[in-house]
Write a structure and sequence with these properties.
119 residues; mainly alpha; 2 domains
Length: 119
């Protein structure tokens, strides 16, 4: 079953960084986030992965650094936890009914959109 994929930009990354960390820490946050993407294998999906890192960090610089390091190794690790938390924990590669899988995907997508749109 297909999961939605957010279409996000660098402007979204900066907006969320300011929202979650404030203007005073913006340059430090952006410097940490820019570590992702310096490696050739990290180039695709920069804003999407950086938003996942921000979501998982939840306003904590230590968590931001930790999740950035995880993303550098494999961005899919932070994407799955940030965008599809319930699916990752409850469904994954297990056999479940299409109805259950669809409900979980819909709930994860709703949760992600609410986080992204929060002021």
């Amino acid at each position: 079953m297909n999961q939605p994929i957010p279409k996000v930009t660098d402007a979204d990354v900066e907006r969320i960084a300011v929202r979650d960390f404030g203007n005073a820490q913006l340059s430090q946050v952006m410097e940490i986030l820019q570590e992702y993407g310096k490696q050739e294998w990290n180039r695709p999906g920069g804003p999407r992965v950086r938003l996942a890192i921000l979501k998982l960090a939840n306003g904590d610089l230590e968590q931001l650094s930790m999740h950035t390091k995880i993303a550098i190794q494999d961005g899919r690790d932070v994407l799955s936890l940030a965008e599809y938390p319930r699916w990752t924990a409850e469904v994954g590669f297990d056999e479940v009914s299409r109805k259950v899988e669809r409900a979980v995907i819909d709930e994860d997508w709703k949760q992600y959109r609410e986080w992204l749109e929060k002021e």
